[in-house]
Recover the amino acids of this structure.
């Protein structure tokens, strides 16, 4: 009887010890959020989806205790998520307006804004189209509802896209005209495929999708053409420029925009770490290789040896 009592007692103690160890392990698995550890949902303007994916892939390989989930949305959806507190960190092609910022000032949240690259909006056509250049004014006329003999159909990725808002601002209008000359799909992938299959359309996409084309889209991008655009603000004579890295850097290409990490966490966290990384030399090298223009051109040291 005594032996049986001792055996039962030992069994209970062993089970309790095992459970306490298991609970301890579970608590240890909860990673505290710092600038290089923890979890975060990063909302991203889908016109610059590829460059963000590239930077995150390297960031995760360096900091394996950080888990940033990229959530790709239109510009309007990303801004809405920030204002509704669904998101606290985002990658956008613009800063928030004063009216949008007021939402955070009321909560005493001081944002951290990090500029990390310059992007461009590209105009693409089917390779069967004979023209290789376009006057920007012809595109803007279509957005004003005036019509153009040079532009049959202007195709955007999404009606809520940052590319739409960018060109509407350049055209000096508040909304897209209701006519058959302007058409919106859902994604940049759909625009590229549409232009590939239709010779009468000009597609509007972030150049990031053309210089960092996903594997599944390469058969399509290989058969479309990027139009060169004039820049009347800098040229007395008519000249046309493609959205190359050098033309973005010199300001020759007229449709460029800055890229930002907007951090509204209100504290140092994983968003801070990502913003620091993408603006540091390591992140700027990734931007440089992507075909976009980094804010800071990474330096390269070359050691010269004198050999006798």
């Amino acid at each position: 009887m005594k032996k049986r009592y001792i055996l039962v007692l030992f069994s209970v103690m062993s089970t309790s010890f095992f459970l306490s160890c298991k609970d301890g392990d579970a608590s240890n698995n909860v990673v505290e959020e710092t600038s290089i550890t923890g979890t975060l949902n990063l909302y991203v303007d889908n016109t610059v989806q590829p460059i963000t994916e590239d930077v995150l892939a390297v960031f995760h390989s360096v900091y394996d205790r950080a888990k940033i989930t990229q959530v790709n949305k239109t510009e309007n959806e990303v801004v809405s998520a920030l204002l509704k507190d669904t998101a606290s960190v985002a990658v956008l092609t613009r800063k928030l307006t004063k009216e949008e910022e007021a939402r955070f000032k009321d909560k005493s949240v001081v944002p951290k804004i990090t500029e990390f690259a310059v992007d461009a909006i590209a105009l693409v056509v089917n390779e069967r189209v004979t023209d290789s250049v376009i006057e920007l004014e012809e595109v803007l006329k279509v957005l004003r509802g005036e019509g153009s003999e040079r532009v049959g159909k202007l195709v955007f990725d999404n009606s809520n896209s940052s590319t739409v808002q960018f060109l509407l601002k350049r055209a000096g209008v508040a909304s897209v005209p209701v006519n058959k000359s302007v058409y919106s799909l859902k994604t940049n992938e759909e625009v590229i495929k549409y232009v590939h299959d239709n010779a009468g359309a000009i597609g509007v996409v972030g150049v990031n999708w053309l210089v960092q084309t996903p594997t599944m889209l390469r058969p399509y991008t290989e058969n479309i053409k990027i139009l060169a655009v004039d820049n009347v603000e800098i040229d007395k004579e008519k000249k046309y420029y493609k959205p190359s890295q050098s033309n973005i850097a010199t300001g020759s290409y007229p449709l460029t925009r800055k890229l930002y990490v907007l951090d509204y966490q209100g504290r140092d966290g994983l968003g801070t770490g990502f913003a620091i990384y993408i603006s540091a030399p390591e992140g700027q090298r990734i931007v440089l290789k992507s075909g976009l223009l980094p804010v800071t051109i990474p330096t390269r040291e070359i050691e010269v040896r004198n050999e006798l």
Q: What stands out?
A: The chain has twelve helices and 13 strands. Residues 1-27 have pLDDT under 50 and may be disordered. The longest strand covers residues 112-126.
